[in-house]
Amino acid sequence: MVGWTVIVYAEQERILMQRQAAGGFVMAWFAGFVVLLLVVSCSTSITGLEPKRRMNAGRDTAGDSSNALASGEISMPVALVNDEAVSREEFGELVAETSGGKILNEIALDRMLVKRFARDGMTFTKADVAREESILTSSLDPDPDQAVRLLRILKNRRSLGPRRFENMLRRNAMLRKLVQGDVVISEERLREEFERWYGPRFQVRLITLDTRNEAEKVLRELRKGVPFNETAAKESTDISAARGGLIAPISAKDRTYPSALREVIPDLYEGEVSPIFPVEDQFAIVQMVERIDAAKVRFEDVKETLRQTVRRGEERRLMDVLVAQLLDEAEVIVLDPAVERAWKRERSDFP
Questions:
Q1: Scanning 53, 151, 247, 345, which has its CA 20 to 30 A from the CA of 279?
Q2: How far apart are CA 224 and CA 220, in angstroms?
Q3: Where are the domains of the chain?
């Protein structure tokens, strides 16, 4: 395990990228949108259940190739490698093994969403899809130019071509429309969010270890005066080890961090090293670097902005729940062995 899985805002890949670069302590989780791989289009089974055909472009005569293609006996290859064809069957088999489960999830979810909309008598429009794109770009960065740049990076990272990007927006527009009426935002929740963003924060260094024995050994060394940053760089299993264990400033109200950490840090003075405490399947030690005072911001001045932020987060949470529910309800019979293996791997990730 390379650190704790921290759910940052579900729709903010920007925060993920920034923390990976500067703050650490973040596993790559992009729950902001359901992102699935592109379906490979082919005229036969994706794994090539029919016998494979290999077509050498340099040896086939133009007439034979044209006749065969026209009759459907062979299909256009997806590529040529050293003048030798890579058939759709050969290519599709590898794609199915690698990402067939994700592809099937995408198809199943799309069909279940259409079914749910029909059952509930709901419709969606191009305006809903455009709004979804606006939600995505504005969540990346308030500066439009920066948002466009980050969106381009996001598309490259997630291999989002035009078709996949459009499908993703449509799918999330439908999910959001289904759950938005269920979002309830209390005054208490808004106050909590205010404390998270504008209340006191804490800059700490972190060490995570796989066993308590290892943690006890490290803690003894720290109490002897061995520098925390050097020990973190040498011993910690968290990604922040590369920065001497330094992680981005956090709030004790920030639920995206483990509760054990949020309970320990408020009582530490600057320079103090914490006792060992468990986090998931690991053991952690932190050192207080700096206690950061609350920002001079009035709750009423940012209340509506916070309400929108909380709404987006709650919608995202409910959308994730609905995705799992719809996929559980889908009656999927997988006939292709390679796709079935990939499907089982993919489904194991859902609760």
A1: 345
A2: 6
A3: 13-39+99-188+304-327+335-347, 198-292
